[in-house]
Write a structure and sequence with these properties.
single chain, 369 residues, mainly beta, 4-stranded antiparallel sheet
Length: 369
Amino acid sequence: MPASVGLELALTRRRRQLRLLAPAALLLVVILLVALIVGAASGPGTSPPAGGGVAARQEGAARTTSGGHQASGASRTVAPRLRARRTGMLSAPIEDAATATFGQGRVVLLGGLDAEDTSTAAITELAADAQGTTATDTGARLPEAQHDAQAANLGGDVYVFGGGQVESYDHILRFDPASGRVSVVGHLPQPASDVAVAAIGPTAYIVGGYNGREALDTILAWRSGASPAVVGRLPRGLRYAAVAASSSQLIIAGGSTASGGASRAILRFEPSSGEVKEIGRLPTPLTHASAVYLDQRVFVIGGRGASPESQTAAIRSIDPADGHVQDAGALPLPLSDASVAAVGGQIVLAGGRSPVGTQVSIFELTPGP
């Protein structure tokens, strides 16, 4: 074969190869361009390195609850806000009364401190209707004037645990709403005022308190006809904690510590196991607050810091599942030591103490959007 013919055949094969490679190269360029566009649209931090980085830390912070515990941000529901409306007036200012519901949506206040900071033995009934809330002195009296007790409804009767005046008491009192009769039905293991009380079924739980010498770290369980028994221990002694019960557990928020300060801790007590666990933190230290369980949440209402005149109007919602805290509204005025009870899907709040003194108003707090 002549050399010129061989050269021509080689060039022909080369041109064919180039024509075949060109579309493949073009396709590769298109693929690369598409990959670059998709990467830019997804933004930085879509797939952070294992060691984290700014984007990863920000995402982690967004999923951390106010109590410092991880939460499912995608499924978190916003707590309803409570709207306050004044519905009545007490016959006299009162704070630190033992409080319980009974009968058809009625609330009873037992004892407490009056406007002169003097203990009372009076028992007052609150009843709501379309016109408002009426406060009536039942005429019944506690065996002696007292305050800083708490109460629970067990089987239709109201039981008052501890309390004090000049000194702390160890009695358990039974108030029969039908007859107005008050009787001593038991005794705590030691005198205890400043207690918190909540009931689950037929059992009342008495949380913390003060025996005249020190703050108590005990959680007592009591049923009618039985003796109180220690069923749990708090991490430290607490007085004036805000406590509410769901169907199966207690949520314990804040309280006064042995040093006189206010706590931020949110504790959960499981009666089935006796375990007490910190599940969250309040935004600020809080004591002398009130708590109530409504619509699957615990609402912590008012309270104050370590200073006696540091009352707050804030209402906080706590998720019992993980201790997540949300803002749930505000009271018309700062209040501590108020009486609260859940009645018919609403919360009744009566009395309490503001920075200017003991109060007389009755409010209805209603969940809203």
